Amino acid sequence: MSTSRMRAEIGEQPEALRRTLEALLPRTADIAQLARETRQVLFIARGSSDNAAVYGRYLVESHTGRLATLAAPSIATTYKRKVDLSGVLAVAISQSGKTEEIVETLDWATGNGARTVAITNGAGSPLAEAAEVALVTDAGDELAVPATKTYTTQLAALSVLGLGLGADVELDDLRAVPDEVQRLIAITESAPALPEIVEELAQVPGAVVSGRGIAFGTALELALKIKEACYLHAMGLSYADLLHGPIAVVDAQTPALLVAAEEGPTLPGTVALARRVTTAGARAYGIGGGKGLAESSSLALPGPALAEWVAPLGLIVPGQILVENLARRLGIDPDVPRGLNKVTQTD
């Protein structure tokens, strides 16, 4: 099979991230203005954008001291209930900016007193037009249905949002991301473990994908990619939730993929989980987590050498490459998963 469009777009991510950061870093002052008039953040999204929002939530709460929550759009669109959103910064995320439910929910938030930000790859889209501040990513056209470069540029926009909200982080950490993603693509594709993990996953009906904290959104996004591009059952869980019962499903036919930054407070728990999985006779595949996770896993792919707060911008990349390879191994065209369209409309 020739190179997929998904693989080509994975390779376009370093430059897409460079363009996006160049375009959005000057907007931190606009965000700071809204920050002075709000006290908490409400993220509005679906699908991959919702997984990006999970990263945004952890970033905001761990580094700005603000409460951040994920919206339930059906409260606006189906129940049509009023909620007092005074003092709230509503951040709507949609790669196309055309998902009617997300646009309607942002309009609802405005009507309930929220200040508003849009994160979208669609310049001039209905979502961008509806927000007070539009952080328009510069991923370029994305033709494959599974989001890759639009997802990582959303994370870049959320990192800029965090800076505008006063996050206690170093800007140089964010500036290092594009070059590190470029390096990571090269070393992942040459990693001896990649074809081995692909072959083992091709023999099982599904997997558990787990991470915690800043890496939790990455686990959710990787699980979604496995489901939509490879048609395998994949459960994305925080390892804290996994230990509360669902770990019982991890066995010889249900391996665990574990994702972690190379530093941070959740890394020891991820390493311990890998040991528990392998001790129980199941397979654990590590992504990131440095030497500790690699040594505790059955097989492992490298992760980004990035500070924890920006690690998810690189951490998903080995997972994207793994999924693209696995789909082709299974005889599936990863560019056009069955039953899916690039823009999804929900009631």
UniProtKB/TrEMBL annotation:
Record's CDD domains?
SIS_GlmS_GlmD_1, SIS_GlmS_GlmD_2
SUPFAM superfamilies, per database record: SIS domain
Q: Where is the SIS domain?
A: 31-171, 197-337
Q: Coiled-coil intervals in this record?
A: none
Q: Name one GO molecular function term.
A: carbohydrate derivative binding
> Which InterPro entries does the UniProt record give?
GlmS/AgaS_SIS, GlmS/FrlB_SIS, SIS_dom, SIS_dom_sf
Matching entries from Pfam families are given as: SIS (PF01380)
GO BP terms: namely: carbohydrate derivative metabolic process
- Protein origin, superkingdom: Bacteria
Read off the PROSITE patterns from this record: SIS
* Alphabetized UniProt keyword annotations: Repeat
Name the UniProt record assigns to this protein? SIS domain-containing protein
Q: Which organism is it from?
A: Actinomadura rudentiformis
